[in-house]
Protein GrpE (Lactobacillus delbrueckii subsp. lactis), 199 residues
Amino acid sequence: MSKEEFPSEKDLPQEDQEKQAKAAEADKAGVKDDKEEAAKPADVELDQLKAEVAALTQKNKDLEDKYLRSQAEIQNAQRRYSKERANLVKYESQRLGKDILSSVDNLERALQVKADDEASRQLKKGIEMTLEGLVRALKDNGIEEIKADGEKFDPTLHQAVQSVPAENDEQKGHVVQVLQKGYVYKDRVLRPAMVVVAQ
């Protein structure tokens, strides 16, 4: 091919040269736009990643908080269980003691009946022995009678069912008669004493 077939830039008319220059500038601008467009998605992606990291960090904090709360609840439940178990062991005879108290009351009432003949005296002696055995068994298991007669009235230990006028100032607020004995089991009141209080 000869040079004549391919004209040089000098040989091109002015308009064609301007078109080529514009095309070259457009190509350069296109490269810049591509770079800017490539930079824009990178910034957006970075922002998305930062937001995702922040969300995951918050989720991690929430999960850690839930974990710590769960651990605290488990420890509280274990403490409560241990305390309830200790109370069950400590007060294991409480219900049996309550059930026996009515029998003790009945035996004490039976002993108040007068024994006129030899047979009734023998029967009374047997009742006394039974009562002593029951009272001893109750005491051995931590159940004791509440002292009430002549004591100062205590609403935690005594149940006032009647009041009478006091004979003197010293007698005021004190128990003057016990209608039914009360009992304590270790540090609990099984049954308060039913008493008459001087006012």
In short: Strands lie at 143-145, 158-164, 175-180, 183-185, 188-191, 193-198. The first strand starts at residue 143 and ends at 145. The helical segments are 14-90, 94-111, 118-140.
